[in-house]
Amino acid sequence: MTIKKMQQKILSLEKQLKLLYNTVNVKNKGVDLNTEKDIEKTQINIFDVANYIIKKNKSKITNMKLQKLVYYTYAKYLVENDQPIFNEPIEAWLHGPVFPNLYDEFKRYTNKPICNGTKKGEEKHLTNDHRVLIDKIIELYGNKKATTLSNLKHKETTWQSTSDNNEDWSKNVIKD
Fold first, then answer.
1. Helix, strand, coil % (nearest 5) of the chain?
2. Which DSSP helix (H) or strand (E) runs through 168?
3. Which ranges carry the Antitoxin SocA-like Panacea domain (predicted)?
């Protein structure tokens, strides 16, 4: 698949992202808590993905750029697999979609390059398919500046439909 086709596919299936995102934040009632905890242990989390991206882009990635690369990874995986790669809330902030827990973990770096990953994530949880997908996202967007990625996101319809910054992303994207 060419880079242009991949970008078009991500954009053209945003509606699917909107609908499926809501399911990420909804907890199933009546699920046995022990089973839920066991499932969480086997699923990858946002920090697994972030650590892999940081490792691949050492000394080149800021918190803002990490947010964008993780978002595009999330969107691409969702489009290709009809399910999210990880369960994490997304909010609409001034410079685009933000995963607040990821932001909080790396905010100490401000706009400086992130030196190390976090202990909250382990790259070993990623399958080869996950790594291939993330590598494609890095190939597509990894050489772009964080501000360029932010500007790209602002041109997309999902972002244009969000009117208020800092508002829960799911509240906006579900309205469509």
1. 60, 5, 35
2. strand 167-168
3. 66-160
CA distances from 97 to 53, 103, 145 (A): 17, 11, 16
Q: Phi and psi for 137 in degrees, rounded to 5?
A: -65, -45
Tokens, residue 18: 């909107």
Tell me if 170 sits within 8 A of 90, measured CB to CB: yes
Over residues 155-159, the mean pLDDT reads 50
Domain residue spans in the chain?
3-173
pLDDT, one tens digit per residue, over 117-140 is 999 999 999 999 999 999 999 999
Distance CA 12, CA 31 (A): 34
Burial class (CB in 10 A: 0-12, 13-18, 19+), 128: exposed
Partnered with residue 167 across adjacent β-strands are 92
- 83 contact partners, CB below 8 Å, separation of at least 6: 20, 77
Name residue 115's amino acid: C
Tokens 């050489």 belong to 143
| 3-state secondary structure (DSSP) of residue 43 | coil
Tell me which residue of 43, 42, 63 sits closest to 53, measured CA to CA.
63
Q: Span 144-159, mean pLDDT?
A: 65
